[in-house]
Structure formats: C-alpha cells, structure tokens
User: Fold these one by one.
Assistant:
Number 1:
Amino acid sequence: TVGAVARDRHGHLAAATSTGGLTGKRWGRIGDSPVIGAGTWADDRSCAVSATGSGEFFLRAAAAHVVDQRMRLLGEDLQTAAEAAVAEVADLGGDGGLIAVSADGASAFAFNTRGMYRARCDSTGLDEIAIFAGE
Amino acid sequence: QIDWSLAIHGGAGTLSRKTITPDDETAVRAALAEARGAGVSILADGGSALDAVEAAVRALEDDPAFNAGRGSTVAYEGHFELDAAVMDGRTCAAGAVAGVRTIRNPVSLARKVMQEGPHVFLAGAGAEEFASLHGIEPAPDGWFEVERRRRQWDKFRKRKSGWFDADVKYG
C-alpha cells in the first residue's frame, strides 16, 4: 500500500491511498485503503490521513476517521491522535500504521510494526526519509 | 509558520535490516525521495494539496518497489486487483475504486470518480467502464507484473490455502 497526505499554501488538505491488496486475495476482497474513513480521510477542519496495515482491522476501527474525531472532539494534537488511532487498531488485533498532516501543517507518523516506508517534508525545512522504527 | 507540508508512505510491516538487502533499501529510499519530490514540486510552486497527493501516489504506483500499481501483489487467480481512494479536505469530496484490473494509476481514476462521477465508490467492471468513458490511461500489457510478486504468488499457491503478504507483511 502507498499513500500521501498534504497541506497546501492555502491551508487545504488532501489524502490519497492506493494498493494491490494481499497476495492470494479472492472473493473480491477489499481492505481499508479505498474505504473513506478507514484508510483514507481529509477534512480541512482537522487532518488528512492515509493508512497501511491489516486492512480488516483498520476497517473495523474506522482508523483514519478516528484521528479526525480525536482532534476535533478531544482536542488532541495530531501525533497524539495518530498514535491513539493505531492503538485502537492494535486493541482489535491489527497492525500497521498511518501518516497524517493537520490543518496547521504539522505532520505525523504512527505505526506498531517494525517499520514503515515513509518520508515527509515541509516549507520550514523538515526533510526525512525513513524505513525502520526508531529512525 | 508552515506554509505547506507533505508526508508519504509505502507500506508498513515486518521490516528489518535482516529482511531488506542493502540494494533494496537503497532503491526504496530513492523511490520515496522521487515520490516526495513529485509532491513537493507542486506544493512549493503554490499548487494544491490534491494535485500533490495524486502526483506523489502516482510516482509510488509506478515504482515496482511498492505494493500498488506496478509491483502489486497477485490475487488468488493470478491476476491483479487494485484499490485506491482520494479525499479533498476543502469539501470532504471523495472518490474511490476497488478491484480494477487494467488501470495504470488507480489513484487518478479515484480522483476522476470524485470530480466527475455521480457516486463516491465504484468497483470492478463498472469502474473500468467509467475509466474508459473518461479517458483514464490503461496499463500496458504486463505492466503490473514483477518477478518478486509472482514468486510470492507461486509460494502461496503451493500452500493451497489462506492468504498472506510476504516480505512487507502488510501494505
């Protein structure tokens, strides 16, 4: 699975996710990636999110939307909300991660696996590419 | 003050320095840099977040290192079934496609569904028909196939049951 989230100079947010799914999937199996609110979400009032992981659990958690809801209803910052959403996925038995940006341009990674292919940058000079946890 | 911001991912899973060769790591980091650059060039020029995420994901879809577009995993019957979604934070407009088999960049089809379709989510043959009617680029023959994914599928078929996502456990 791949994905991107962005905030532009006008303060607008967007998210996109794309995937080939699982090796050997059948019966028209669909994971969270194309399901709005599970693997993909964007709302200028809060955040944009793209997820990757064990899709069935991200679907059940409505994981991407959880980040939005925690920010708007609980007042959490982006990183806290992102980590909480991944924790909810983990509580259901799933693993994976997500990327997010917020309306103020902050960005966040959260995952409970040993790694996630990821990169981010912004207009202040933040510039990261990482694979493994702890990088 | 952050004027613009971009983050991308290429999947998560059981990644470690034992499971990824140095050559693979170098290739993945280069691919991430290229995809990030595709999005940043748009944002730095004052372009929209929507254009930036589409450009970044298209670059990742075209790179065989990731499980999306070219390099996707192989489904049970030996074919490819791709899913994608786009959401615009300005309006909460959204578009999604699932189970498409012939579209080079499913993310662009999802965006077309969002912007020109009467529905949010299209699947299978109907999504393919919508793509054809709206001039979405098809994939060349054999575009999605990469040797590593076919080997994973062969391994899967020998198991005779279940499903799995081999090297990158998920994503």
Number 2:
Amino acid sequence: SISKRRHQNRNRSTQPQEASKSLSMADYNSSDQKTACKKHELYVSFRELGWQDWIIAPEGYAANYCDGECSFPLNAHMNATNHAIVQTLVHLMNPENVPKPCCAPTKLNAISVLYFDDNSNVILKKYKNMVVRACGCH
Amino acid sequence: GNSEVQSNFIQRRLRISEKREMQKEILSILGLPQRPRPHVSHSKFNSAPLFMLDLYNTISEEEEVPNPHRFVLATEGPPLASAQDSAFLSDADMVMSFVSLAEHDMEISLQRRHFRAFKFNLSQIPDGEAMTASELRIYKECTSQVYENGTFLLSIYQVVQEHQDRDADLFLLESRTLWTAEEGWLEFDITATSNLWVMSPHHNMGLQISVETSSGRSLRPEEAGLVGRSGALEKQPFMVAFFKVSEAHVRSTR
C-alpha cells in the first residue's frame, strides 16, 4: 500500500507534497516532540534519606527515569525496538484496544555503593541496572 | 535540566510515612532487610574503610561515570590497593572488609615464643555470594633494630584447635622472609581458610602470626615493625574478601 501511495503522490501536483512536508515538520516541532519519550533527570540522594552514617560513598546517584509519548513515527526521534514499531502500527489501526509502546530504559548502567554493616565491616557492592543511560520505546 | 519537566515532577514534599516507604524500597533494591546501624565514631578513618574507598574510587574511574563526589579521606601515604587487588576487583561483584574482633599479643613463657592472634566474624556475608579471594593485610613499618642478616621470618597460621591447658594446634599457611627496612602493606592469601570458615563457622578459631630471626629467636610482632591495634588507625590490620554473585537476587513481595 505504501508503494501505491508513493506512485499516486508522484502524479499529483507539488502542493499536497508541500502540505505533507509542513505537516510532518509541525509534528516534530509541536508539543508532541516536547512530550516525546526521553530521559529525565532524577537524583537519588542517600544524604536526603538520612543515610550518611552508614553509606560512605556515593552521597547519591543520578538514577534518571524515562517518560513521554511513544507516537508514530518512532524511528524519527528516538530509540525503539523493532517490535515497538509494529506495536505502534497496530495501535494506529486499533487505538481503542491496543496501547502504544511504553517509554522505558534501553540502556542501564551499574553503580557501586560503599557502606558499613552492623559490625562496622565495610562492603563495596556493585548493583546492576541502576542508572538509566538511554530511553526508548518498547 | 528542563525546567518544564522539573515543574511537572515533584510538586510536594513527601510525608514522613511516604519517606519511610521510599527508604524501605531503596533498601530492598540494595538487598538489605533494614538499614545497618554501625558503631563508627572514629573508625571511618581506619585502614579498612580507607582501603575500600581506594577500591571504590578505582571502580568509579573504570566505570567512566562522572563522579562529582569522588571521595578522598586521609589517603596520603603508601597506596593501599595493589595490582593484585585490582585484578580481583575486576572480577568481583562484592568486596567486604573485616576488622579483627580480637587481636592480642601473647607469649608462651616456657618456649619464650611470641605470637599475635586475630579473629574475624564472617557471619554477616550475604547469601548467594561465593568468595573468590581473601587476604589478610598487615602493615609493616621500618625498624631500626638490627637482626642477623637484616631479615626475619614471618609465619602465618590457621588455628585448628584451641586447648585450655596447652598451646593451640596450628596449621602453617605461609612463611615469608622480610627485610627490617621494608615498609608497606603485607598481603597474605587466606582464601582456602576463609572459605572453610564460611562453610563451617565452628572451624573459625582465627589466625596467629609469629616472627623469628634467622637464628630462630622469637620476636614480638611490634619489634619487627608489624603494626597492631595500638598503632596508627590507617595502618591497622584487617581482612578483605572478594565475592562473585552465585545466584540472582530475588526481591521478596512486600
């Protein structure tokens, strides 16, 4: 169906093409772009939690979080899994019953935490998947 | 970053109960049932925390994550972590240091044999952690006393059986010849012994070290420059163990 449409467009005057272009540009510049799925800053402060007496380091860490819309077309402005693209198309066909893909982390990093236990022994532990490095649509 | 995003985000302070819930959730992520309550009035500046901080900073550099809170305590002096520690560290998921619970210098008067005893509590090691390496670390200062050849022999033993009426049964773990002028951290591999202690805690009767000259005369450890409990805080002996996670951490439903 896409190739048919392309063929039809070629035969039309330039006016609708221009309209289409301006529409797509408007999509990217509109509030959709502002609410698009992306990484947001979120700092977890161990100090604010009142834990500086047992956590030696760090004082906190930038955990971050993902938030925003996963709207068509996904590939244009964000990381998206192959399935998320299909999910978007199915959502477009059946918006009432099929949800949009979720905005979620695509890359996660580890952090290391240094802390005292009850016996004043010191523990250095690596925690996987604690920091969001990149977000995308799943 | 984005002021608009920030204004949409936290718009109120958490209530006390909510803050407690938040603390519980983060403790759960850290795999802790409750927050530890250590007694650390001055022990923050002991050798073990400083050593661990050294490892922490090494990891932070390797992870290449911008670390605005790079921690530097009183780390002046000889480097704590060795190349071997860095190798252990790259393979480890967890590192744990243990302070000696009982450290005492004793002399068996009949033989005039001096020794120093150490005891470590390994009961707090979390489940699912497999120990890959462990070492006893003792700081040696330069001594002005002159012994035969300028060297002496340091031996480290595992206490196998204790007796009330006679000397403990010992198992020799390592002997090392040291120069009197030598200064720095001595590392002794005690991986096999500490694995035995983890598997059967009733075998954990501690370690003993003894020092003698090349002619076999027993020396007090401090005569050989070995720093003990009475020495500088940043040179206190301690044990460090490296672990690999052997099973996935499953968070329980709350």
Number 3:
Amino acid sequence: LKEKHKILHRLLQNSTSPVEL
Amino acid sequence: PEAADLRSLAKLLLESYLKYFPLTKAKARAILSGKTGDNAPFVYHDMKSLPEGERFINCVGLVQEPTDEVQLRFFYSCQSRSAEAVREVTEFAKSIPGFVGLDLNDQVTLLKYGVIEVLIIMWAPLMNKDGTLISYGQIFMTREFLKSLRKPFCDMMEPKFEFSVKFNTLELYDSDMALFLAVIILSGAIEELPETVSTSLELQLKLNHPDSLQLFAKVLQKMTDLRQIVTDHVHLIQLLKKTEVDMCLHPLLQEIMRDLY
C-alpha cells in the first residue's frame, strides 16, 4: 500500500501544503 | 452521560468541519438563493464564458500544463481543486477521534475508499437542479452547459445532479453533514469505530429533525447509492484515460482511483 499510495501516505503523516500537492 | 459524550463528539466534528471546509452548506445555499447581494457568482453557461471566468478561478497549486486550450486549462484546474479537496478531507479525517491511532495502511485504505464518496456528498449542497457552484462559490456552472459537452464528458456530472437533488431534500444541516462525513470515512473495513460516530449521527438527526421520520435510515441508504455513483465515476475516468490520449490525470487522483473498483 505504501508504495502505491505515496502521496496519501504523505498527506496522512504531514500537513502537506496545497503547493506541494 | 453517554448522550453527553455523543454530543461532544458531534461538536468536535462540527468544529473540524468548519475549519477544513469553509464553503459550508449554509453559505452555499445563501449564494444559490441569491441572498449574497452584489457578490453573485460568475455564471458559466457556454464555452465563451469559460475564458471570461478564469479570473475567478484562484486555485492554489494549479497544475501548470503548457496548453492554450481553455477547456483543457479548465479541466486541469478542476483536477487541482479535487486534489486540494482530498487534502482537506484528509485533515478532517485526522481530526476524527481514533482515526490517527489506526494502522497507517488502514488509514490509507479508509481514505482511498471513502474520499470520493465524501467529495460527492460535500458537492451536493453546492448544487441545485439548474447547476453547481464551483471555485469556492465564485462561479455557477449550469447543468445545461455540462450536458452540452461532447461525450463522454457530458455524462460525467448528470448522475451527481440527480443524486444531489434527491439528497438535498433531506435538508441536513452542516452539523449533520460533519457526522455523516465521519461515518462515511470510517465505514470501510474497521468494525468498532463507526458505531460511536453513527450513534452520534442518529441522536443528532433526532434532535435536529424531530419531525423527519426515519431520517437516519434514509441517510444511511444514501451510502448505497453513493457507492454506485463512485464506481461509475471511476469507470468513466478509466475510460477517459484510454480514449483521451492527451489527458493527464493528477498523480494523487491516479493513486486513489487505481484498483479502486
């Protein structure tokens, strides 16, 4: 799951800013 | 005491909902009913109005695709807004008591399966039978315009309109919506967590809508309809990927939709 959902993982672990998205 | 706990859960989720979703149902309905005075939304009703309205699209993190085609630019800004909305839903999910304590893989699974359902439910208050608000309520896009697009784009929004018009007849408040969104997010594979939130929703609906019989059952029934809409939506996007060779899908949306249904 982690390999296939890197962005979702990042969103869950940090408060990723809209620009980083 | 148990009811007091459920009420405090409802309060906490409403606060979180208001923090992450600034265009509330109450605000959207005010805009749609023309109660915002001079701040009426710009109306998209045909292709010519697309470039005129671009100044209202202040999407942060807009995908910078090198294209002069206004429809494509609009399509990419829709995708950027969707990705941003996924980020907002993720932050809301993290505020649900117990969510961040779950295994990270379970959190991913719940979000993957719940986030499009949540986005469609959140879109419902922005719609009426004639069209939908977009771009944080600054633009109103007519249903007829969306129906006039070439296939298969014209088929994309019509099922959401049909669902939303019916869903809106339930007349839920923002406080009900906050709990319902939490129920949707938690109703994946985890057995015990949703019970508290769904009991809180049941209590809240009884308090907020004493004359609306069986409202809790009607709201839960919408989850079945939602699943079908999401399945059809994902299949349509997968079809687009095959037929529209120039189309780029946002990597976050690709992640969510890959192997979804």
